[in-house]
Design brief:
The chain has about 725 residues and is of the alpha/beta class. The longest helix has 25 residues, at about 110-135. The chain binds one RNA strand of 76 nucleotides through strand 8, strand 12, helix 7, helix 10 and helix 16.
Length: about 725
RNA sequence: GGGCUCGUAGCUCAGCGGUUAGAGCGUUGCACUCACAUUGCAAAGGUCACUGGUUCAAAUCCAGUCGAGCCCACCA
């Protein structure tokens, strides 16, 4: 008979059990027993290969593994497809940082050598990430692991691009776009984060050009701006057509100070009369609204800021080559000297920053590739509106719709080196696709490729068996921060290329914050590596502690206390099993254990009570899991197991079991104490076994380890594929 | 500027119209004999942010105030 150690030691169990699972092959849906028919798929949100996983990933991995293990037990043909994302700009940046320590830039290295370095990085961190998932107990099908830049994926991206292109939805054009001067690339609107900064609002006098020789020398129109340096590129001054103050001035000409360019005063509805003086300077090259105005009024576009955020040759000589902030200072000084600066106010405004390196974004005109969004936005909207795709919590659907409603065309080209090369050189010819190491020219926005994830990972554009069986996927579990960046784009990509939704449910999990409510980040030193927790408490304890805290809020302030609870709970389970095994229960047929029920005769009130409590727990846990209430399910299981089972039933059973018979009063309705003893042991085993099943999705290692030791005839190879209690 | 979420025990969070408001962790006291001291038993600890309203009844619904966070937005 098996004897368990007094204290559960995860270190002795986890690796062994994980190997047992791997050897069984059951992570792979093709190798599941015949009972598992109906497919249930989750594709993992592929982590960026920028570094190791953090608590947010740990939470999401826990959520997905709970769902997958639960469905597998229910008899689904479960596929959890793992993988990683090349994460264009983000990964390029971390490798550049690494190079910087060696005193080299990516330009010193050259494109080819640099890409080689990134692949080395990918080898290291890509594998590290997958190892972390394994340590957490994730039951992914590793034979189907994908990377957003692997060979087949390259083909998928190319196919998608050409599909759009042939439809005329992809076009090349020069527009004012977001430009990161540090990353040296364009960015989409979603890749910008606004940060509040204290600035100034400068009121500048623009002298009017006299209409006739009746000079009125001191006549000016005053404009307000937060960016005086851009005035060097002004090609008009504008006021709202309804603004009476400027009625007489519209149509006149001003002479742009410092430049001496004659520019018109125009009327445009985009101008807000309430802001500043009601008259604005129009800089079409460096402001989106001004760009729009310029198109309407056919104004020239003069680019005075270049890709390095320095003043161009279009600016007057004294400013050329100055950095934006230097130019700003000089412009202000020069205006002051010419007595053209009316006044200065403090002004709090939102500065656009690069979401990957926090450098201030410049708006500059640039030749880029765009994807038309009008039809795609509608395609993304429809299935959510119709309820075919459900968001949990539902409130997030609003921000999804809002974004789709006033969407602009998506700038999909990036001027970085790490990514999918744009498969067309110009609008005229379609080029063959080169392998990533020898590419030239622009690459695609990394989100263009991740948008294809739910079907590209299953073999698309080939019509594979996997694609037929496992698409659409069941649930997408992800962070609310990428609803538009990723989720929306997967939806329209799925509709466009598969004609089917990519997933039915979108579970937006909470964001994991530090105890103080700060964002977990490596650079701030606030990050927690889940591996450290696993080392300290075990994977099950870590998972249970995390699940315990998933209560539906937007944020979770992570506290280790819950992991401590998880460890204690695991120990409790361990010892309950230990107790049972110490009673030397007879070998019991698995079927008879499975079918134990209230119908059975000779049950004591305590027996009935625990069996009823178990039934209630099963129902409640099922309901919770159906509705993504992981924390509640964890609490229910905890209460049932610790209190109903251990505190009450096991304690009571001690007076029933024969080893205690000296203290027990015989009850006449049993023919013998031995029979009573057997019945109690059966119930203990029955409740324990079902508890193990219910707990398995949350704490797979310990439950599997105990299952392996239980005295059951006709035992399955793994608890993982036994039947979920109904 | 628009939208969303949240302010409940020392800490992290449940409860979301109806008996003395709960859990985990922490704290205090007692108890190691036969599953477990990663345990058991007992206890302390809360004007449920504030103000007003609806109701027989409000932590729970409504309005407003204050505080925290997130998302969206071309106001120079």
């Amino acid at each position: 008979m098996v004897e368990l150690p007094k204290v559960y030691n995860p270190k002795e169990v986890e690796e062994k059990i994980y190997n047992l699972w791997l050897k069984s092959g059951y992570f792979n849906p093709d190798k599941l027993p015949r009972r598992h028919r109906k497919p249930y798929t989750i594709v993992i949100p592929p982590p960026n290969i920028t570094g190791e996983l953090h608590m947010g990933h740990a939470l999401n991995a826990t959520v997905q593994d709970i769902l997958i293990r639960w469905r597998r037990l229910q008899g689904y043909k479960t596929l959890w497809l793992p993988g990683t994302d090349h994460a264009g700009i983000a990964t390029q940046n971390v490798v550049e940082k690494e190079l910087k320590k060696e005193g080299v830039s990516r330009f010193d290295l050259g494109r080819e050598k640099f890409i080689e370095r990134v692949w080395q990085w990918k080898e290291k961190y890509g594998n590290l990430i997958l190892e972390q998932f394994k340590k957490m107990g994730c039951s992914c099908d590793w034979s189907r692991t994908r990377f957003t830049l692997d060979k087949e994926y390259v083909r998928a991206v190319k196919t998608a691009f050409l599909d759009y292109y042939k439809k005329g939805w992809i076009y090349r054009g020069k527009k004012v776009i977001n430009w990161c001067p540090r990353c040296q690339t364009s960015l989409s609107d979603l890749e910008i984060e606004y940060k509040e900064e204290k600035g100034k609002l400068w009121y500048i006098k623009y002298p009017l050009k006299p209409k006739t020789y009746n000079l009125k020398p001191k006549t000016y129109i005053v404009v307000a701006t937060t960016r005086p340096e851009t005035m060097l590129g002004d090609t008009a001054v504008a006021a709202n057509p309804k603004d009476k103050r400027y009625k007489n001035l519209v149509g006149q000409i001003t002479v742009l100070p410092l430049v001496n360019r004659e520019i018109p005063i125009i009327a445009d509805r985009l101008v807000d009369p309430k802001f500043g003086t009601g008259a604005v300077k129009v800089t079409p090259a460096h402001d989106l609204q001004d760009y729009e105005i310029s198109l309407r009024h056919k104004l020239p576009i003069i680019q005075v800021i270049d890709e390095k955020a320095e003043m161009t040759k279009e600016a007057p000589l004294p400013y050329q080559g100055l950095k934006v902030l230097e130019a700003r200072q000089k412009v202000v000084e020069d205006l002051k000297n010419k007595n053209l600066l009316l006044r200065v106010e403090d002004y709090l405004h939102q500065i656009p920053k690069c979401y990957r390196c926090a450098t201030t974004i410049e708006l500059i005109p640039s030749e880029q590739w765009f994807l038309k969004m009008a039809k795609l936005a509608k395609m993304a909207e429809k299935p959510v509106k119709k309820g075919e795709i459900k968001f949990h919590p539902k409130s997030f659907e609003k921000s999804y719709f809002d974004w789709l409603k006033n969407i602009k065309d998506w700038c999909i080209s990036r001027q970085i080196w790490w990514g999918h090369k744009i498969p067309i050189k110009n609008e005229a010819d379609v080029l063959d696709y080169n392998p990533p190491t020898t590419r030239q020219g622009d690459v695609l926005d990394t989100w263009f490729s991740s948008a294809l994830w739910p079907f590209a990972t299953l073999g698309w554009p080939k019509k594979t068996k996997d694609l037929k069986r496992f698409y659409p996927t069941a649930v997408l579990s992800t962070d609310r921060g990428i609803i538009n960046l990723w989720v929306a784009r997967m939806v329209f990509s799925g509709m466009e290329f598969m004609k089917k939704i990519p997933f039915k449910d979108v579970f937006l999990h909470a964001t994991v914050l530090t105890r103080e409510g700060k964002r977990m980040s490596k650079s701030l030193g606030t990050g927690i590596n889940p591996i450290n927790l696993i080392e300290k408490y075990g994977a099950d304890a870590t998972r249970f502690g995390i699940a315990w805290q998933i209560m539906g809020g937007q944020d979770i302030r992570f506290v280790e206390d819950n992991i401590v609870m998880g460890r204690k709970f695991c120990n409790k389970i361990w010892n309950a099993a230990r107790f049972l095994l110490m009673q030397k229960p007879p070998l019991i047929n698995a079927d008879s254990v499975r079918r134990f029920s209230l119908i059975k005769k000779n049950l004591t009130p305590a027996d009935k009570k625990i069996l009823r409590a178990l039934e209630k727990t099963i129902k409640s846990v099922n309901g919770d899991l159906e509705n993504f209430r992981f924390g509640r399910a964890a609490h229910t299981l905890y209460d049932f197991f610790w209190h109903d089972f251990c505190d009450v039933y096991i304690e009571k059973s001690k007076t029933e079991l024969s080893f205690m018979k000296a203290k027990v009063k015989m009850r006449t309705k049993f023919s013998s104490p031995k029979q009573k003893d057997l019945k109690t042991k059966k119930i203990l085993l029955y409740v324990l076994l079902n508890s193990l099943k219910l707990l398995h999705p949350f704490i797979p290692f310990i439950t599997e380890e105990i299952y392996q030791k239980l005295p059951i005839k006709n035992k399955q190879r793994c608890l993982m594929i036994t039947e979920w209690p109904k």
